[in-house]
Amino acid sequence: MTVIEVFADVTCPFTHVGFRRFVERRDELHRSDVVLYVRAWPLEIVNGQPLDAHHIAAVIGQIQQQIAPSLFQGFVEASFPISSLRALTLAAAAYEQDLGVGERVSLELRELVFEHGVDIADVDVLGRLAAEYGISVDFDDTRRVMEEHADGVSRGVIGSPHFFTRRGDFFCPALHVNRDADDHLQLRADSEGFDRFLKACFG
Q: Which of 159, 74, 149, 160 is nearest to 119 (CA)?
């Protein structure tokens, strides 16, 4: 089993793009032995405030126009969660049960947010997901999330997503993110960077 460690927020659209492409490539290569260990990088803690739903919607619009038109089809700005801490707590509990369960829950949470317009801050939503996977969790006990964030800080995590492989670490390898002179966000696919990342994962 090869474990790719990644620090990320469940509400980060860049992470959703990267995970989708990683899974697609893994499926193409039939490499089920390579698993994502998704650890918490709560952007509301990093930034000192919750993510702004309107800003995220604008970023998603740019991603669709410039990079991935097929993604985020079910995103609903009004349903964007006010916090990711409970969802990250569920993901951490899922990984305590099993690596595979942890990955499936982490991916499903992002699908709910970005493809189905579901508010994953809702404890009823999280409770149903926990029950589906047989996970016992206190959604308001965020100690594990804070511990993972502190570990990420100590390891020099730049942002969401930041991957760690046996051959080096990669920040947001699927996308090149920059700002122009007027501070406007500029996005483009980083094919070369993502190829390097995939070789580090599957090579």
A: 74
